[in-house]
Amino acid sequence: MRVSLFATCLADQFYAEACADAVRLLRHVGVDVDVPSGQTCCGQPAYNAGHRDDARAMARQTLRALSKTEYVVLPSGSCAGMIRCFYPQLVEEEAERARELADRTYELSQFLVDVLGVEVLGDGLHGSRVAYHHGCHALRELGVRDAPLSLLVGCGAEVVEWKAAEECCGFGGLFSAKLPEVSAAMADRKLDTLPGVDFVTSTDGGCLMQLSGRGAVRGDAPPFRHLASVLWQGVRG
Question: In this structure, what are the phi and psi dihedrals at residue 161, rounded to the nearest 5 degrees?
Fold first, then answer.
């Protein structure tokens, strides 16, 4: 099986080690991984800002860059949601190619569980108390709810109940820039309800940046770690 990793902008620039850990995880379970050099942004920020021509150009470039791979895996539910849910309508003249790409595109935990059938990677998280944040795009666009939790438990972690786990963190890309006061209040709501844990994890870098940034301002939050890096710790102990 051959997989292309779509690194995404945030992971590439802010969570580079998570990109590397995603590759390590995939190779650990026997997958051949490459990282196509032609990939750029998925186009989501431009799309959300109403710059459809710019988003369309990025989508076309992504179609070209990922045209010759069996599967595409992303360490981001947000960017995976952009490809799967919006590319076919965004590039109507290449809708068939866009649908074909969407059908073979997966968020990392979704691919490991739903495609490969992997739920146990190791026991390196034994004794860890973990809170999981469900990013809106992964949860609501892709339907990814159980896969990351199964993988964490399969690595020995205790996933602690968090009543705000499925609430938006307030990032929303441009939303956090346009409405910073509302965005900060939403993050504070998440942090105020956070139980005592060793760390918080999520599959989305934007959510992790939002919550960790607000936590740093408040000075009362645990570490925030990308799911790919947490699962790789589960493998190597």
Answer: -65, 135
Identify the CA nearest to 120 among candidates 229, 51, 29, 23: 29
Three-state secondary structure readout of 103-128: HCEEEHHHHHHHHCCCCCCCCCCCCC
Measured CA to CA, the distance from residue 169 to residue 164 in angstroms comes to 9
Burial of 100 (0-12, 13-18, 19+ CB in 10 A): middle
The pTM assigned to this predicted structure is: 0.94
Token pair listed for 230: 């947490």
Q: At what angle do helices 16-28 and 227-236 cross, to 10 degrees?
A: 50
Q: Where are the domains of the chain?
A: 2-115, 129-236
Query: 164, 190 in Cβ contact below 8 A?
Result: yes
pLDDT in tens, 23-72: 999 999 999 999 998 999 999 999 988 999 999 999 999 999 999 889 99
Which of 100, 103, 94, 173 shows the shortest CA–CA distance to 137? 173
